[in-house]
Structures are given as structure tokens and as C-alpha cells.
Amino acid sequence: MDEYYNMMRMNEEIMERKDEEEIHKLRNDLKNYNMLDFLKKVSALMLFPINQSKSVIFQCMISTALSIPKDEINNSNNMSIGKFRKIVNKFQRLHRRVMVDPPEFPFVLPIMYYDNYHVYMGANSLSASNLNTLLKTLMVHKTEIDIETYSRINKIILGLLNISEDIFIKTKLDFKEQKSYNKDEDIYIPSAELLIEYEELIEFSDEYVLERLNDTVDELTCKFGDIKKEDISDFNNQIFYDKPLIRTNKGFIILDVTTIISLIMKKTIEYLIENKKMDIIKLYNEYTKINLTHDFFRLKHSPIDSRVFNLSLINSDNYCESMYTNGNDGIIIDIM
Q1: pTM listed for this prediction
Q2: Less Cβ crowding at N or C end of the chain, within 10 Å?
Q3: For residue range 89-106, what is the model confidence (pLDDT) as tens digits?
Q4: d(Cα 77, Cα 242) in Å, to the nearest integer?
């Protein structure tokens, strides 16, 4: 068995090295083109529901482009739709395609507590319900936070939600048409004309962005060269997850609209921690536990006393284990 796993691990390492070599070639090829134009095309593809499961591929494309220093890019040469299709195809043929999983949530979901703003879910494991609970907790206890800190948190929250909502409205997405797509299908690339229309949806003027994000813009904006070549393949840790905007001659591009939900969550928690408001985070965890228990109850899963099995489950502020029935002979162990 050990020999089998060693062989599997060796094979995985070989495939990863091949990916690195191919990404290096693609990176050198991309230097010959206008990378802002390329990034607009990639970001626009994420607005098509059929591409929802392809976040791991899009991340690699965006990170590769952002790893190129600005002075090495030929901004006078826009990529043709034919060349773009070839580049996308090479990225989606990388070994990392095995990381593509079916999405856990619908393409778009509303944040009901904040006036039904819609967020794009992508491959997020974080649910809209989690964010909704955090924002509700924040609002109820806002008087416990100093005005300046709350104003800054709220500015980022509303600014990003407004950007997401404006994109949603312009795409005229019909919820009735949302459906599940085969994760193994190739990335959908529309006609050049339709792609240009969608590119316009993710580019915003200086005035638009500054009006909504004001003095928080800089902490949400990245630039070319911010990503190291060796970090391109790190799916879990990319600078544009925290800084989803990049400047253009006309204003800003939102690099990945699906990062908005997790970014709002992260920024809110970071501000609370920095200002020593752990009590509010603790309340959020408690509310989440209560909501989760209600969800299990609605699904006909009853809580189980772990002591029946001589088990001692952990139940702390930051970590909670619980058990529920699953049919007549099954058990669900939930970790939160």
C-alpha cells in the first residue's frame, strides 16, 4: 500500500512539474499581448453560468497574467479571439483541471439582510447564509464598534455588494434558467461580439469606484508584478482574492467577481479582530450554530447525545463538533 501511494505521489509531482513548465511557456507568450485586455476577457468568462466550476483554471490564468511585471508587457497588441481561445484551451488542459469540482451553490445568490444584493458564488465553499449571518450580527452590534471603524467596514461591504449587484442587473440573469452544468465540459467562450459586451460589465470608471469605495480603493487594488512566478499555482492564496481590482486607463476592472463574498467576510472579520471585538465574532459563531441546528431539524436530522457512544465532542468559541441522525442507521458528524 505504501508503494502504491508513493507511486501516486511521484506521478502527481511529475504532472505538477509539467504544469509549471507549460505555465512558464504561456507566461512568456502572454508578455506579447495587452494583459489588461486579456484579463477583461478572462473575467468576463466568469459571468457565464456554464463556467461556474472553472474557478481553479481562471485563477491560474489571472495569476499568470498578474505575475508579469508591467514593463515586460506589450500593451499595444490586443489578443485576437482566435488566439484567446488557444490560450484558454492550453490553460484548461493543464493537470490542475483534476481540481475542478461541481459547484456547491447556485451561480448567484442574494444577501437578503443587506437589501437583496446578489453575489456570484463560483467555487466558494462559503455560503451566502454565512455572510448574511455575519452582516446581521455586525449591524445589530454596530454601536459596540467605534464610528470610524464601522464606517470603513460598511464602506467596503456596501461598495463591493453594489459592484456585484450592478453586474448582476446588467447581465439580466434569469433565476428560472439557472441549472447544473457538467464540470468536465470545456470553458465556454462566446463570440467576439458577445464577449466584448460582457467585458464592459466588469470595467468601471474612476468616478463609479471612488464613489462606492472612497478611501478603501487602494487596499482593494493590485498591480502587475504583485504575484511571484513560483506562487502562480497556489489556488488557496492569491493576492487578487484580497485585492480584486486593477487599474486601467479608463478606471478599474474587477478581476474575479466570485471573490466578493469571501472578501467581504474576510475584511469584516479582520477589522473586528484588529479592533479587539472578539465578542461579536463569538456571537456570529453562536448564531451560526443555532441556524445550523435549525437547518438539520428542517431536514429531519435530530441531534444525538454523543455520550451514548462514550464520545466527548469539542464545543468551543472557535470550533464545534456535533452529531445528528441520518435515516435509521446513519450518523452525521458536523464540524464547524
Answers
A1: 0.88
A2: N
A3: 999 999 888 888 888 899
A4: 29
